[in-house]
Amino acid sequence: MKSSFSIICFCRFMLLFSRQGKLRLQKWYVPLSDKERKKISRDLVQTILARKPKMCSFLEWRDLKIVYKRYASLYFCCAVEDQDNELITLEIIHRYVELLDKYFGSVCELDIIFNFEKAYFILDEFLLGGEAQETSKKNVLKAIEQADLLQEEAEAPRSVLEEIGLT
Amino acid sequence: MGSSEMCRDLAGEVEKLLKTSNSYLRKKAALCAVHVIRKVPELMEMFLPATKNLLSEKNHGVLHTSVVLLTEMCERSPDMLAHFRKLVPQLVRILKNLIMSGYSPEHDVSGISDPFLQVRILRLLRILGKNDDDSSEAMNDILAQVATNTETSKNVGNAILYETVLTIMDIKSESGLRVLAINILGRFLLNNDKNIRYVALTSLLKTVQTDHNAVQRHRSTIVDCLKDLDVSIKRRAMELSFALVNGNNIRGMMKELLYFLDSCDPEFKADCASGVFLAAEKYAPSKRWHIDTIMRVLTTAGSYVRDDSVPNLIQLITNSVEMHAYTVQRLYKALLDDISQQPLVQVASWCIGEYGDLLVSGQCEEEEPIQVTEDEVLDVLEGLLVSNLSTPVTRGYSLTAIMKLSTRFSSVNRIKKVVSIYGSSIDVELQQRAVEYNALFKKYDHMRPALLERMPIMEKTASNGPTEIVQTNGIPSMTAYNKNGLKIDFTFERANPNPNIAVITIHATNSTEAEMTDFVFQAAVPKTFQLQLLSPSSNVVPALNQGTVTQVIRVLNPQKQQLRMRIKLTYTHKGSAVQDLAEVNNFPPQSWQ
To answer: Where is this chain primarily localised (chain B) (predicted)?
Structure first.
């Protein structure tokens, strides 16, 4: 396992999954084959779902340190380095949840299912290369807003054409 | 996630963007640079100029990613590390501003200003302060400040405290600061949040060797964590508890640990049992206490005890001479209750075989001696042989025990019968033993008492070599040769499988100021002996007794005659060749008798 993680960064991967074990989001910050990714996701999800509510949010799994937290029906799971601060990782996860919440307005699992690209965009504005790039909530959301605007502008001309009647 | 080729191609662009005024781009450029360095470490140099003004940024995003970049560079290159040490005052200032500044809605998390940046700075300070007195001193105050002023009611404050503790423990901090750090961990242990308790135990485990006394103060809290519900917390508490056991607290600690052993999950039992044995061996206040502790482990967690514990325990029991009667009685009683736990059964069988005579003669002083007959004892041992619960190894132990009792008990006929039955056992190992024991009864009956007599006190061997050498107490070493500054001492051991072989180790030392090179030791023995010389450790005997050349000689002495030896020494000393012959006659009698 260790040899496949040739890059060392704070966050190696981030997984979001439901209580039934369905993967809603997966972001990998280390190079791994599809097969390896599937295996890791599957095994890790099973391990975490088997844990009782009274247990710690941290566990050692294979040679990784895993930090996870459940928010409503979704598990947020992050794999970090051995020397990393688990408590601040919990804050990282919490920040991501807050960003989603602010963007979607009281976010729920359905929002993520139906707008997963947005969930990825938000994550990508918050973490880059496995490290936090922006520590201000406001700035991350501003960046997403601007991206949304660009997207709308790109989509706008089409509807204008439609209006004129040139479908 | 670019490949290394991509990184090489684009590194220049990234470097340029690092200097742009657009903070949005700049922060991303910094993390790109981090990735480039991770993929292609040789490119690190080219980013160096751009790092000059990174820390004077106001934008937290850029600041954060810059600190990540600096951290990456320092972790990878000792030169960079030395170069960036000068940033310590600036980092300290930034951290100070974060703590002292008022409420900033943009970066606030539960009343703390940009905890992510604070943690990253603390981490960089840790790397810069490690092994460097000056840097460590420069950050001393700010660390103390963070440690005392950070709000601990929420996870975020504790995250910062945790990082601070890690930094304090890693740099060259003064003792007061270290004690402060350990006390923070001690407070963490009392926190309701199990995550906090977890990180506290993990950190304490790392520091228990270096700051032992400070951690000892929190011993009772740590022991309480043995009762925690979380598996990881329990494991760490157990490891930490064993690390804290010493001669003063052994009784109290052992009580808690044995209680833990009783009630813990099976996954812990093997490690806990091993830990108990180790601690008991080191700090047992009395032999009786030691035996009692072993008994407790064997009876409550007997099936989880590691296989290598059995010979260790046997050795321990053998050496506690005055406790033999007590030990065999307790083990016998334990067998009457339960024969399912193999390590217990094996140790018990061995003891009964060895000390069965003490058992039936009721010699126990430590507690009320029980009344048991020879037949009852043999019933129990035979029961082990036929029970489905016994493993083949256990059966071997009990058959041997029965055999040994033939020289301690009077019911020899019964034993003869049992042994002959197993001469046709399906189990090959058992069959072989039975056949050999049968032979002892028939052809070699005269040797039986000697072979089955009480075991002597054993010295613990450091490791099991290819031949098991049991160093018997009492064969004194001797000086075989001492001339012209060259001294050769002989030490003796007996090779276990064959008592006719004397194993002699020569130790050659040189007290002159010049070394002896091309050193060759040769030996000859009389015709009735056979000699084998193994390779020497070296051919150079260092000057001024600064080292020893050793060599092993094996002498076969089947007729047990007095050992005599003629030795020849050749070496080069101060440029000239030296040769000498000598007779060695002063062998101690124990080496050949």
So the answer is: membrane
Q: Are B521 and B536 in contact (CB under 8 A)?
A: yes
State the best of B24, B163, B168, B267 to mutate against chain A, taking most chain A CBs within 10 Å: B24
- Mapped to the 3 state alphabet, what secondary structure does B129-147 carry? HCCCHHHHHHHHHHHHHHH
Option in A60, A88, A138 nearest B116 (CB) = A88
Could you give the C-alpha distances from B334 to B63, B326, B340, B397, in angstroms and in order? 68, 12, 11, 16
Closest by Cβ to A88, choosing from B28, B119, B229: B119
Burial of B422 (0-12, 13-18, 19+ CB in 10 A): buried
Q: Answer whether B443's CB lies under 8 Å from B544's CB.
A: no
- According to DSSP, the β-strands at B478-483 and B469-470 are unpaired
pLDDT of residue A163: 65
Interface contact A77, partner B, CB < 8 A: no
CATH superfamily label, B478-591: Gamma-adaptin ear (GAE) domain (2.60.40.1230)
The stretches of B304-444 forming alpha helices (DSSP H) are: 309-319, 324-337, 342-360, 374-386, 392-404, 412-421, 428-442
Domain residue ranges in chain B: 4-244, 245-301, 307-452, 478-591
Give residue for tokens 């657009």.
B22
Is A15 within a domain?
yes
Query: A67 in a domain, yes or no?
Result: yes
Contacts of A96 in chain B (CB under 8 A): none
Enumerate long-range contacts of B360-363, CB under 8 Å, 24 or more apart: B360/B409, B363/B325
Residue from the list B158, B159, B195 with its beta carbon closest to the beta carbon of A57: B195
How many other C-beta atoms are found inside a 10 Å radius of the C-beta of residue B409?
19
Q: Using one digit for the tens of pLDDT, what is the confidence trace for A125-153?
A: 999 888 888 898 888 998 898 888 888 87
| Structural domain boundaries enclosing A54 | 11-157
Residue for token pair 């002989």? B490
Determine, for residues A60 and B155 on separate chains, whether the beta-carbon distance falls below 8 Å.
no
Is CATH 3.90.740.10 the right assignment for the domain spanning B4-244? no
Q: Do A91 and B230 touch (CB under 8 A)?
A: no
* Closest chain B residue to A87, measured at CA: B159
The per-residue pLDDT for range B197-216, each reduced to its tens digit, is 999 999 998 888 888 888 99
Q: What is the count of structural domains for chain A? A: 1
- In angstroms, what separates the C-alpha of B76 from chain A's closest C-alpha? 11
